[in-house]
């Protein structure tokens, strides 16, 4: 599952990089389905970071890896 999540994150990174940001995978808890990530660069301090996390990162990961229940910032 971790490899699948990382592949999806690698797919998301170019989109975030266009705005000066990025995302790093910190942890995948396979039992709970919770993925922990860190938004970095411009995304780390952006007032819209929560919207990016849920609306882009979480949505895309959940589409690609249905076992994921939630994506949280770490």
Distance between the termini: 19 Å
Give the H and E element order.
HEEHHE
Oligomeric state: single chain
What structural class do the secondary elements suggest? Answer: alpha+beta
Q: Could you please describe the fold and organization of this structure?
A:
This protein has 74 residues and is α+β, with helices and mostly antiparallel strands. It has one domain (2-73): GMP Synthetase, Chain A, domain 3 (2-Layer Sandwich), CATH 3.30.300.130. The chain contains 3 helices and 3 strands. The protein has a 3-stranded mixed beta sheet.
SSE topology sketch:
Elements: H1 2-17, E1 21-29, E2 34-41, H2 42-45, H3 49-64, E3 70-73
Parallel strand pairs: 2-3
Antiparallel strand pairs: 1-2
Helix pairs in contact: 1-3
Give the tags.
GMP Synthetase, Chain A, domain 3; 3 helices; three-stranded mixed sheet; globular
Briefly say what this structure is.
The chain is an alpha+beta fold. The protein is 49% helix and 28% strand.
């Amino acid at each position: 599952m971790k490899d699948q999540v990382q592949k999806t994150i690698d797919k998301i990174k170019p989109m975030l990089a266009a705005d000066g940001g990025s995302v790093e995978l910190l942890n995948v808890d396979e039992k709970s389905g919770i993925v922990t990530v860190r938004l970095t660069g411009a995304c780390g301090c952006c007032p819209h970071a929560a919207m990016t996390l849920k609306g882009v990162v979480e949505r895309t990961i959940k589409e690609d890896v249905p076992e994921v229940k939630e994506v949280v910032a770490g």
